[in-house]
Request: fold
Amino acid sequence: MIVIGESQGGGQTLIAAGLDNRVSKVVATVPAMCD
Reply:
């Protein structure tokens, strides 16, 4: 599974990748919620 997101969605893609082992690729453009 590939997850893609920008801004807040970019932060959510990183969270999804960390929680779901089915995620094989992540595209996080300008991810928010990283601080």
Summary: The first strand starts at residue 2 and ends at 6. The first helix runs from residue 8 to 19. Strands lie at 2-6, 25-29.
